[in-house]
Design goal:
The complex is a heterotrimer of chains A (312), B (479) and C (275). Chain A is an alpha/beta fold and 312 residues long. In chain A, 47% of the residues lie in helices and 12% in strands. The relative contact order of chain A is 0.16. Classes of the chains: A alpha/beta (312), B alpha/beta (479), C alpha/beta (275).
């Protein structure tokens, strides 16, 4: 998996201002387009192909106050080998943990292709000074994280201080210069489509490698509308700069049917270049189990039970 | 690098059972046509023959009219509530057999199953429910006591939305106390024939609904019959003018819903991505076989390149193919004749100087198909900018000022619909006041509802269908 | 007496409930007697909570959906029409009058079902103001309506006391007295009709026990009094209502477009027209 970029993907603040000027999105029209994409009927080998994509795109996630090294051990084992009864099922893309668990996760995945992603920047709220955010990010990287998931400063965004929001991401990208940076928008708080588009473009312009929908910590997680909007932003950004950014959707994607609908959006709006873990991820915990069930069903033609697959 | 191709997901046609031969429907039964002649109806996506249907002649129209007269005697004695109950029952049966009707519609006409299932059939049922609800409250529909039904109504419908057009005609006519003789399009009779079966099932009094299949001669015979008190026609402007001319010597009710060359105006302050969707929907929905299709993109010059580039990219993801594949967006062209018309007009467009863009999708070998097509560098004087193509072909014209946009949009004998794309509310209202069109869609397109009146200005026809206003097409003022 | 004794309960928030007070009162029909809930102040409070939620859900449906729901109610009613006829006969009506009443009731229900997606076209409109403005009067639902139903033994009258407010998109708390059996039975068909929980709530009791609680409850937006009340009661209601400007309708029309008018709030919106 190569995540190095040839081009510097940051825009100056004045170029960013131009990019986010006059963003217009019609809510009803957008919802209709997303609903129409959801009518795609994905069957047979195209379904199996999608299910395999999804497994390789998953970041198995645990972000709980009660996480321990033991818990990380279980999850990493599952990440490396999701279905012990079927060696054809590939490993997931990464595990996603809090900074305190990064070194354990790194130790448990060292003989595999599974990456270790860490949240930081005072995840999930981001309500702290920039200095604290830089500190916890640097700590995670020092512990061995390959990828960092930060949150945007929503306080700054809602106060209209877009410059501050931008500067913070630029500063954090500097800390993350050798690792892959995902920027979480928290679309459930942004709510309006203009806000989501604006936050997407600012995050991209400030140097993010990926934009991510949600922390998974509030009840309004990801939505297909947000994913569509972010895909539009990624495409527009590519048209302006040549840089291809990635998208991660997280929070509330519980079953394969829904995950496949997300893939349809990516396929038809961005194209097959984005259908791999370098450009699209699912942040999930229980999604993988449903995908495994579906893969087994396609092979055996029988509905499965969860008890065939290991806990993570 | 892999691509992700969607496997076929075919809606089974085993739900449908088509007879080898159909007669005409009057006196509540299917009967052999007096003409003793039949027409073949084919599936335009495979060219396979689906069935033979009667080719009704003048004598068959006479039988239908006599049947309608008896039907009227019974129907006019029923209360509005009783009429409502028949229509509610029909609505329910349509809902229950929706899948069957949808598959039949896609087979007979070529439209994608996704459309017939998700758009046509729900609208059909909704129309019957909506008008059923008017049948018992006509006295309060318009604040006047003098409204009465016409009596025997002749209705001629087109092939682009066969069952939907049937519902737009039959439901209000019956709700208002009229009886109907329906002549469906030559190439799409099958869903109307299945509807006639439903009328039998709900016990609709014989003669209230009559069906005579056939071709242009059948329609002419219906229009010419002296005992028909009202004609409602949806189809081409040329035939509409013929009907108005043909009935000039009679005091007859007439509503015409004809062709269009609608302008879809995109201002530079539109929500561009949604405008692209709206433009695509406006012309490629139903293969462009839509009277109110947004067939002229009237685009503000300063966003031309950005918009066209997004439009072309979006067009590439349109899937053309088997109408019964659930992933098909664009189905077959309805007939060989229509395909030839489209091709000829497109060739003229190229000859006149328009730049053509077509998507590079694969097309099946059998059947009638046309790729989604976009013309740029076209002038308002080109044939492709003025004539109704009735296919998946969009012509782009540019404007610089709002007044110019209005002028270009109105510069046509048609006036059925128009689209306005801008995020500025006052501009929408300003433009809507000035556009000569009977239906105006702002920041959306191709939206229909039984409660929303539909119909044209100028040579796109007169009279309205749907809504409270639509009742007036079937009620005349008693002087 | 039946072998299995039927208990009729209040219908609130899509659930069948006894009065929280545990109290009942007796309704004796010809063949059978029933102990039905004696609705208390707290029951009214709970019904309002349910009606608030029901209002939100009922409003989410398109007008077309609301027609469908009411049409489905008519299907349920038609299936049980003999039960209603029996209740009417047990309440003292002749067989033929009972039959006629239930037939009228179904026709009324069909009439109201079919107007749910039409009334706004007949009561709202564009206003031709002087100036470059688009001006439209949009009709909205009043909110939560408490109906005090007529005490006639009639299914038709019962429906005519409930449907006008329901059809305009309001949620309804429908209160019945000595003729409650019919209404509490209706609750069962309502429950089968896809009507969102809380959109229509049915209570039985003695109105004079809760007259102050109902007319003082600020979250009840309107009261429609279909029953004949003495002037002293009307005065109490109006005085209490004045504290929060509750809308009070005494003996409103029970048929035609006029029956809907009380339950509509008109909202007029202006927007300029310009480039």
């Amino acid at each position: 998996m190569s995540l190095t970029k040839e081009t510097k993907n940051t825009l100056s603040w004045s170029d960013t201002v131009e990019l986010i000027d006059n963003l217009r999105v019609d809510e009803v029209g957008l919802k209709e387009r997303v609903a129409s994409l959801a009518t795609r009927s994905i069957k047979k080998d195209s379904k199996l192909q999608a299910l395999n994509y999804i497994v390789t795109m998953c970041d198995l996630t645990t972000l709980e106050g009660e996480d321990t090294e033991g818990k990380i051990g279980q999850m990493t084992a599952k990440a490396i080998r999701p279905d012990p009864s079927n060696i054809e099922v590939p490993s997931v893309a990464a595990v996603c943990v809090y900074p305190a668990l990064v070194s354990k996760a790194k130790e448990m995945t060292k003989n595999s292709n599974v990456k270790v992603a860490s949240v930081s920047s005072y995840f999930p709220s981001g309500q702290a000074p920039l200095e604290s955010k830089i500190l916890d990010t640097q700590f995670a990287i020092d512990q061995g994280a390959d990828e960092i998931d930060i949150v945007i400063n929503r306080k700054a965004f809602f106060e209209g201080d877009y410059r501050k929001m931008y500067d913070e991401i630029v500063a954090l990208k500097e800390v993350c210069s050798s690792v892959h940076l995902k920027t979480i928008l928290e679309v459930g708080e942004l709510r309006t489509y203009e806000n989501i588009k604006k936050a997407s473009l600012i995050s991209l312009a400030a140097g993010s490698d990926f934009i991510k929908t949600s922390t998974g910590k509030i009840s309004d997680g990801s939505s297909r509308e947000a994913c569509y909007l972010m895909a539009k932003s990624v495409w527009d950004y590519k048209e302006v700069t040549g840089f291809k950014a990635g998208i991660k959707v997280a929070g509330g994607i519980r079953d394969s049917k829904d995950a496949i609908r997300y893939l349809v959006i990516v396929n038809e709006e961005l194209g097959s270049d984005w259908l791999n873990p370098d450009y699209f991820r699912f942040g999930a915990s229980s999604l993988v189990d449903d995908v495994l069930k579906q893969i087994k069903k396609l092979k055996t033609n029988a509905y499965q039970s969860g008890y065939y697959f290991p806990r993570g | 690098m892999n691509t992700w191709e969607y496997a076929e997901s075919i809606e089974s046609s085993s739900i449908v059972s088509i007879e080898k031969k159909y007669g005409i429907f009057f006196d509540g039964q299917f009967q052999s046509p007096n003409s003793k002649k039949y027409l073949k109806t084919i599936s335009p996506s495979t060219e396979e023959v689906l069935s033979s249907v009667a080719l009704g002649n003048k004598s068959d129209i006479d039988s239908a009219v006599e049947s309608a007269k008896s039907g009227l005697k019974v129907w006019s004695k029923l209360s509005g509530t009783q009429r409502a109950k028949y229509l509610f029952k029909l609505a329910r049966l349509i809902q229950e057999r929706s899948r069957e009707f949808a598959v039949l519609e896609s087979l007979d006409g070529g439209k994608p199953i996704k459309e017939s299932r998700d758009f046509d059939l729900p609208q059909v049922a909704a129309n019957f429910f909506y008008f059923a609800g008017w049948a018992d409250k006509l006295d309060i529909s318009w604040n006047t006591k003098g409204l009465k039904p016409y009596g025997i109504v002749g209705q001629i419908i087109p092939w682009n939305f066969p069952l939907l057009m049937l519902s737009w005609k039959v439901a209000p006519a019956l709700a208002t106390g009229n009886v109907v003789i329906l002549k469906p399009a030559e190439s799409t009779p099958l869903t109307a024939l299945l509807f006639a079966e439903l009328c039998q099932e709900v016990g609709l009094p014989p003669g209230v609904f009559n069906l005579v299949t056939g071709d242009g001669t059948t329609g002419a015979a219906l229009v010419q019959h002296p005992d028909v008190s009202k004609i409602a026609f949806t189809g081409s402007t040329a035939v509409g003018k013929y009907i108005q001319n043909e009935t000039a010597d009679r005091d007859i009710g007439l509503t015409l819903e004809l062709g269009g060359k609608a302008a879809n105006i995109v201002f530079n302050d539109a929500a561009i991505d949604q405008a692209v969707e709206g433009v695509v929907n406006g012309i490629f929905f139903n293969q462009g076989h839509v009277c109110c299709a947004g067939s002229r993109l009237v685009l503000q010059e300063d966003i031309h390149d950005e918009f066209v580039s997004k439009l072309e990219k979006r067009m590439q993801s349109l899937r053309v193919g088997n109408p019964l594949d659930k992933n098909t967006d664009i189905g077959a062209i309805n007939s060989k004749e229509q395909l030839d018309k489209i091709s000829s007009l497109v060739n003229e467009g190229i000859a006149e100087g328009g730049s053509i863009f077509q998507t590079d999708c694969d097309l099946p070998t059998d059947g009638y198909w046309f790729r989604p097509t976009l013309f740029t560098n076209a002038q308002p004087s080109y044939k492709i900018s003025r004539e109704e193509i009735f296919g998946p072909v969009l012509t782009t014209l540019t404007f610089r000022t709002p007044e110019e946009a209005i002028e270009i949009s109105n510069n046509t004998e048609y006036g059925l619909s128009a689209g306005i794309w801008t995020e500025k509310g006052s501009k929408i209202l300003w433009a809507a006041d000035r556009l000569q069109a009977g239906v105006i869609w702002a920041n959306t397109f191709n939206k229909f509802d039984p409660s929303s009146p539909f119909g044209g200005y100028k040579e796109s026809g007169f009279g309205r269908e749907g809504g409270r206003h639509g009742l007036l097409s079937y009620l005349k003022v008693q002087s | 007496m039946n072998e299995i004794k039927k208990t009729y309960k209040n219908y609130v928030g899509g659930k069948y409930l006894r009065s929280e007070s545990g109290k009942t009162f007796r309704i004796a029909l010809k063949s059978e007697f029933y102990e039905v809930p004696l609705t208390s102040r707290k029951d009214v409070r709970d019904a309002v909570v349910a009606a608030k939620k029901g209002f939100t859900e009922w409003q989410k449906l398109t007008p077309y959906n609301r027609t469908q729901v009411l049409y489905r109610l008519s299907e349920m009613l038609e299936g049980n029409i003999e039960t209603y006829q029996q209740i009417l006969e047990d309440s003292g009506l002749s067989k033929s009058k009972a039959k006629e009443d239930t037939k009228q009731a179904l026709d009324s229900l069909i009439w109201y079902a079919g107007i749910a997606d039409k009334w706004e076209q007949m009561t709202g409109n564009l206003n031709p103001v002087a100036g470059e403005y688009f001006n439209i009067s949009h009709q909205e639902s009043l909110g939560i309506v408490f109906t005090l139903n007529s005490d006639e033994n009639s299914l038709n009258q019962l429906l005519l006391n409930i449907l006008p407010s329901l059809v305009t998109g309001c949620s309804v708390i429908s209160f019945n007295g000595d003729n409650s059996i019919m209404a509490l039975k209706l609750a069962e068909d309502i429950n089968n009709s896809d009507l969102p929980a809380g959109a229509l709530n049915i209570l039985s009791g003695k109105f004079d026990q809760i007259i102050d609680d109902v007319s003082n409850h600020v979250e009840i937006n309107a009261m429609a009094i279909y029953k004949q009340l003495p002037s002293t009661d009307k005065k109490i209601i109006r005085e209490n209502a004045s504290k929060s400007l509750k809308r009070i309708f005494i003996n409103p029309p029970v048929s035609g477009l006029e029956s809907l008018l009380p339950f509509i709030e008109t909202k007029t919106v202006w927007h300029p027209k310009g480039r």
